[in-house]
Amino acid sequence: MKDIPGYITFIKIQPIDFGICSGGAEVYTLLSWVEGNDCEIVLPKLRKNQQYDLGIEAGRILKKIHTIPAPKAQESWESQFSRIIDNKINSCKDCPIKFSGDEVLIDYINENRCLLKDRPQYFHHSDYHVGNMILSDEGRLSVIDFNRFNYGDPWEEFNRIVWCYSCSREFAAGRVGGYLNSDVPLDFWKLLALFISSNTLSSIYWAIPFGSSEVEVMLKQAEGVLLQYNNMANVIPKWYRKVIL
Q: What count of Cα atoms within 13 Å lies in the side-chain half-sphere of residue 165?
């Protein structure tokens, strides 16, 4: 276990036990864990200022995570993400389930792909949102589920912030402020809109194997994204402007 003062406790998950259950039909593995409660559940029960402060902490944690640079041989971010964008646009066009506004997202992405050029790359958690955070009884925030880690543009780590603002706008706004010290450049918002648009395009296709209920969740989320960005006419989302203003 390693402590980074003022940020987070990184816990090395250790195997505790494994064996056979259900009469030999299944195998179980018991691992060590983080004590606390699912932040996504307890966060809305807190006062608004507490939610914002925890968002600040989440932003600072993420900033610390991004102190680890990508390997020197890493493919450029522009090349990597352009390929990802192309695949997601194609998956959207091939998807049997359509949503209103998909072409608006595609147009925004294509108009702003130039922003990917010369972007830095650092270690990524790759699924950084309130659903992967634990809040202890003492108010300490911990981040779990690093199993998808990779390297990329640090600002792309905000692409899951849709789950954060759906839970708490104050937390989401605090997360941005904690990471950027409230000095948020316009290019951050433009790139974030691009990353979120890209995710939204492929979300319906991704959800199909998980059933109709998951598809409905993603369709509703796509509708919400377009609403937050006023059909991509505004790059600063409504949830942020409402909290800050």
A: 21
From its phi and psi, is residue 231 left (phi > 0), alpha (psi between -120 and 50) or beta? left
Distance CA 70, CA 192 (A): 20
Sign of the Cα pseudo-torsion (177, 180, 185, 190, in order): negative
pLDDT in tens, 206-224: 999 999 999 999 999 999 9
pLDDT digits over 35-92, tens only?
888 999 999 999 999 999 999 999 999 999 999 999 999 999 999 999 999 999 999 9
Sheet containing strand 37-38, edge to edge, reads 37-38, 133-135, 141-143
**Residue 161 zone, left/alpha/beta (φ > 0; ψ -120 to 50; rest):** alpha
Closest by CA to 158, choosing from 98, 50, 239, 244, is 239
